[in-house]
Write a structure and sequence with these properties.
Elements lengths: L1 H14 L1 H7 L1 H9 L7 H29 L8 H20 L7 H20 L6 H11 L5 H11 L4 H33 L2 H28 L2
Helix pairs in contact: 1-9, 1-10, 2-9, 3-9, 4-7, 4-8, 4-9, 5-8, 5-10, 6-7, 8-9
Length: about 230
């Protein structure tokens, strides 16, 4: 089911832009206003996002490796259970994006202590004076506690290997690029649209629908073996 998971992760990143506007708006603004002005804005924002997606990919590799290590024996369907959990989390994530619950904020609170340690390093990297420095700042940005990122990481945990987990989080990161690049360059034009209720509802319910489809596929596969 890795192809389906990759598509789900890509769309979760793309449709999750309704969350990114609020969550990462301050970070993007800091990047925009605390640069030295000698590098074209597009190249800078591309470098920031390259660093951020690199961090996500690393997280995915670690989660995938951990998930693979939990498969203790052939008779213990840990990976199947993890996949089912990932679909439930995807449904809850979609409902959160649509504004129907706040459950995934538990993940953000849990990651807050890690971000407090990373934030001083992030602040030292500003103002950005070179593209390599922008990549490093983007990698630090990737540690920002985000329920959207952590929810998709559950799917990486169920991916079955470090390579599959990394690929899944890479797909998610690429899905976030249009929104976050656009926010960096055209924030005033994008933000009002992304904050409209119908946009949030449509995006969130689409993500939840993919999670429901994944659960159905898992149940159908289990019943077909009976």
């Amino acid at each position: 089911m890795i192809e389906f998971s990759l598509l789900t992760a890509l769309l979760a990143g793309l449709l999750g832009g309704v969350h990114c506007v609020g969550m990462c708006g301050g970070i993007v603004a800091a990047f925009s206003f605390r640069a030295d002005g000698s590098t074209p804005p597009f190249r800078l924002h591309l470098a920031y996002n390259l660093g951020r997606v690199s961090s996500y990919t690393m997280f995915g590799a670690l989660a995938g490796a951990l998930g693979a290590s939990l498969k203790l024996a052939e008779f213990l369907p840990v990976q199947t259970l993890l996949y089912g959990l990932a679909q439930v989390v995807m449904i809850l994530l979609g409902l959160y994006l649509a504004g129907f619950n706040q459950w995934v904020l538990v993940f953000e609170r849990a990651g807050g202590s890690v971000w407090r340690r990373v934030r001083p390093l992030f602040q030292k990297l500003l103002p950005v004076k070179s593209l390599p420095q922008a990549v490093l700042a983007g990698m630090a940005w990737g540690w920002l506690p985000c329920g959207l990122v952590y929810s998709v990481l559950v799917s990486a945990l169920a991916a079955g290997s470090a390579t599959s987990g990394a690929a899944l989080m890479l797909a998610f990161g690429l899905g976030t690029l249009p929104n976050l690049l656009g926010m960096g360059l055209f924030a005033r034009q994008i933000q009002p649209f992304m904050q409209q209720l119908w946009v949030r509802r449509a995006a969130g319910l689409t993500v939840a629908g993919f999670g429901a489809w994944g659960l159905w596929a898992l149940g159908y596969a289990a019943l077909s073996k009976v």
